Amino acid sequence: MYIASFVLKMVSNRFLVKVAIGGAIFTLTSISGMKIYIENKFQRQDFYLKSMDLLRNYEPAEERLGKPIIDRTINIGELHHNYTDGINARLRIPLKGSITNGALYVLASRETPKESWHIDKLDLEIPSHFQRWTFYYDPRDSSKVKITGGSDEADETSIIDNNAVQDTQAS
């Protein structure tokens, strides 16, 4: 009992406040560091790198956003946009170009966690032009043909069934 009261007399409120503030700063720094680590881990994933490569090779994106197209940090707090379960991935990558900003929406998948990622679909959104269109579909599905938009009149991408294309050509 004597030791406890002696220790309490030595510890002032000012010291306790400093410890609390130091603990809060440590906790916030740790959480921020973990968030940055997870965001950087997303940016090193195969589906992220493949998607950005496909976007940078898509000329209408360069025309509308402007060169260079810079990928900005994703917000891992937006779970409705940025999510992966190891088999499927959904991602919204903010973009900045010399002309305007935009976003790349990615859908990717793989059969097992040990396989490489396949990009299933890529959408490009340019909010300043009120446009969003699909410019890439997975070529693994050979029954579909990839058609890319990008002209001023038609910024929509559609999938055409190969059988329907053959039927039209035969008539």
Reconstruct the topology from this structure.
Layout: H1 2-10, H2 13-43, H3 46-56, H4 59-65, E1 70-71, E2 83-84, E3 88-96, E4 101-109, E5 118-126, E6 131-137, E7 144-146, E8 159-161, H5 162-170
Antiparallel strand pairs: 1-3, 2-3, 3-4, 4-5, 5-6, 7-8
Biased composition (Polar residues): 159-171
Transmembrane segments: 15-38
InterPro entries: Coa1
Describe, in plain words, how this protein is organized in 3D.
This protein has 171 residues and is of the alpha+beta class. The chain has two domains: 2-40; 47-170, no CATH class. It is 39% helix and 26% strand. The chain is built from five helices and eight strands. The strands form two sheets. Strands 1, 2, 3, 4, 5 and 6 form a six-stranded antiparallel beta sheet that branches. It has a two-stranded antiparallel sheet with strand order 7-8. The protein is elongated. Residues 142-171 have low confidence and may be disordered.
Shape assignment: elongated
The secondary-structure class comes to alpha+beta
H/E series, N to C? HHHHEEEEEEEEH
User: Count of helical segments?
Assistant: 5
Biggest sheet character = 6 strands, antiparallel
**Total strand segments:** 8
Supply the number of structural domains: 2
pLDDT average, as an integer? 77
Proportion of strand residues: 25-35%
**Share of helical residues:** 25-40%
Span between termini: 100 Å
C-alpha Rg, in Å?
Answer: 25 Å
**Unreliable parts:** 142-171
GO cellular component, one term: mitochondrial inner membrane
Biased composition (Polar residues): 159-171
Pfam families: Coa1
Region (Disordered): 147-171
